[in-house]
Amino acid sequence: MTNNHVEIWNKCLSVIKDNVTEQGYKTWFERIIPLSLVDNTLTIQVPTYFFVEYLEEHYIDLLKMVIKRFVGEKGKLDYKVVVDSSNSAGTVTVPSANRNFPKNPIGQPAPQRLSDGPINPFVIPGLKKLQIDSQLNENYTFDNFIEGECNRLARSAGLRVAKDPGKSAFNPLVIYSGTGLGKTHLCHAIGLETKRLHPDKTVLYVQAEQLSTQYVTANKNNNRPDFINFYQMIDVLIVDDIQFLSGKAGTQDVFFHIFNHLQQNNKQIIITSDKFPSDLQGMEDRLLSRFKWGLTADLQSPDLPTRTSIIREKLHDNGISFPDEVVEYIAGNVRNNIRELEGVMNSLMAQSLLNKKAVTIEMTQQIIDRFVRNTVKEVSVEYIINSVCDYFKISPEQMALNTRKHQVVQARQIAMYLSKKYSNASLASIGQQCGKKDHATVHHACKTIADRLETDKQFKAMFADIEKKIAMQA
């Protein structure tokens, strides 16, 4: 039996290569360096702790077999993690099958600070505490996130998470809503508040699309382990617009492992989506089930008092004042979302400053008319409910009753379907207004109506009569 560690490891590799995929071999074994063979213990060098975890989880039986075959019955395997040998990085030896890996070894090289723009996790594979750009917008704070009935739950949950990240019941915190209702603002506010209260925490905001692009690049460059290792060291990970991972199996798989690691180590995960998680298409069930572990909170279209407060706050921030009648007119006529409201405000302020004219009702009407012409007008859920009830000659109170009477159930399902089609309200909000039903009931109702429209001509004709009135309002 030879004591040459290089020769022994090459023999091990010859067997391993025949028992794993080509990609698996390139990813997990080509980067291993044999270091020594002492007292029946073969020591190999690996680049990250994640490497150790992955080898132990997926290839332990194969490794035991080759070690026993080429080192002997008493053969053992030790890993030496050398994070960056080119910079005299510190090393830590980890015995095989030992899952209690040290998390913060000393002596690692100082990590490079990341600049603005897309982050590159692979320039800082060291295990020392990360010093990275959190990619948070300093303007999106809790102070200028106006609270109202439309967002109270999500805002309160966000403050709770920032106070005690990773240790509350809100992990993950999933925030969902339609476009322009403040999801991105809120998650930036949570990140900034977390950094203020816990300056030692590593916080990172990343868009799901950006995460996917990074993964594709990492996979192409055989840097998948470093990619995973980087994200597993984040204390508070904020992933915006998770729906962009739909249909991207590779990114979903790697995010699944990142999610599990963060969750198990009491790290905070915050996710935003444009739909309730169960309504996301093209997402793996194992991910969707994990999104439900914590709290899912929606942001609804702002009501009149909230819209008024948002307008006054923006005017205050810009040192500008509008007449009360103008503020009331804007709040009463721009109802779809906050982004549209801010667009109208910005246009009015620009017109006023450039033309050196005071903002008047006439000027406001012209600006809003332009916005209304260029955007789909939202119909309120209340209007839809009333229209459907009028058609079936029942009252909204009757529609809300918990009854199996066919006419009431049918009216309620049609109202839910039309509300989803013509309003920006979330499924949870629609359900609440249609008899305090949950989002799953709304989802089922929409599917039921869609199926009937395809198969029942008589029902389709009746539905067209109901929809005609509502479509005229849109």
Structural summary, described in words:
With 474 residues, this protein is an alpha/beta fold. The protein folds into 4 domains: 5-95, DnaA, N-terminal domain (GMP Synthetase, Chain A, domain 3, 2-Layer Sandwich); 134-298, Rossmann fold (3-Layer(aba) Sandwich), CATH 3.40.50.300; 304-374, Helicase, Ruva Protein, domain 3; 381-473, DnaA protein, C-terminal DNA-binding domain (Chromosomal Replication Initiator Protein Dnaa, Chain: A), CATH 1.10.1750.10. Helices cover 51% and strands 10% of the residues. It has helices at residues 5-17, 22-28, 49-58, 60-70, 152-163, 183-197, 208-220, 224-232, 249-264, 285-291, 304-317, 324-333, 338-355, 361-374, 381-392, 396-399, 406-422, 427-433, 439-455, 457-473, and strands spanning 33-38, 41-46, 76-82, 91-95, 173-176, 203-207, 236-240, 268-273, 295-298. A 5-stranded parallel beta sheet has the order 6-7-8-5-9, sandwiched between helices. Strands 1-2-3-4 form a 4-stranded mixed beta sheet. Helix 9 (249-264) links the parallel strand 7 (236-240) and strand 8. The longest helix is centred in the last third of the chain and has 18 residues, at 338-355. The chain is elongated and about 85 Å long. Mean pLDDT is 81; it is low at 83-130.
